Amino acid sequence: MIGTEFIKGYGLGNQLFFYVVTRCMAEEKGVDFGFINPGQVGNVFHSNKGMYFMDIDLGTEIPPEDRDKYTIFNEQDDRLYMGNSRHDMSNGCYISGADKRLFEIEDNTLIYGNLQDESYFEKYRDKIKDWLKVKPEAESYEYTSDDLCIINIRGGEYTNHPELYLDRKYFLNAIEHMKKINPNMRFMVVTEDEEAARKVLPEYECHHFDMGKDYVTLKNARYLILSNSSFSIMPVLSSTELKYAIAPKYWARHNISDGFWSSEQNIYSFLHYQDKKGRIFEADECRKELEEYKKRSVLYARRNIRPGKIRLFCQIIRRKSLYGVFYLKKIIRSLEKRVGIIKKYQC
């Protein structure tokens, strides 16, 4: 049996990656699959109703006390220690790519890690659509249209992290690209945090339905502008409607990267990536650029190395300056909304 553990605190996007990759590895080995704590799936910070909208086969439940009977596989975990935030200074910024050792695991193994690289699941994309099949009563094509683009904004804990939270400019640039595809394109925001989303794009219709309908709306959209959130990837991966999707280049460090990805695992062939200047890149272009970056980057050469006292002091200064600029932008945007420079959506 190949299995993993659903640990409390992870969002649905992470949980579905754990689920899908575990099943893919079990398929590879021709063995059963199972999970420790399967009841945790779908019980996340903004929903505690489980996977009420999806028929999902969780295989065999593995009792926690049986954990010691299995070989434990921990995926490679590479990090950059930088002055972007307290998190990146203390825990490091996760940058790992695929861990080829995962394909060498044997039966009776529990796998742990990020588990989001396309190479782990690309072979089974057709099967994944069945594994993540939405219940008929939860399915919806209400927002499936050739002239409607769904914008997924991730709020919540992201909103206080300048290295992570996407700026309004990212979305405006992506909107302009979508208008080149269709000048009559309409836009609607789907988010788990309406309050935060309305501060970023107050001029557009905004909804948080429930977790299931948010998921289904993304899955069945034909045009998408994504945030750097894993929640959106599985609905996109299992979509039969998608025509074009834009995601932030460098993923979780779009705002501050000098060429590294957080993480490399989030370069997907089915997405188009937009940089800070609004330029669009294909996945292969991103991968080639990253390989060149790895060869020349002094920062990348220091991966997994914690800074000394002098470098740490400089990182603290950098972190404070980033936060200062971040909150200044928030103040400016608030003033722009108050004086009417940025319009509000009218029903």
Automatic annotation (TrEMBL):
Keywords, sorted A to Z: Glycosyltransferase, Transferase
Pfam family name, one: Glyco_transf_11
Superkingdom field: Bacteria
A cellular component annotation (GO) from this entry: membrane
GO terms of molecular function: galactoside 2-alpha-L-fucosyltransferase activity
Any one biological process term the GO annotation gives: carbohydrate metabolic process
Protein's name in the database: Glycosyl transferase family 11
Lineage: Bacteria, Bacillati, Bacillota, Clostridia, Lachnospirales
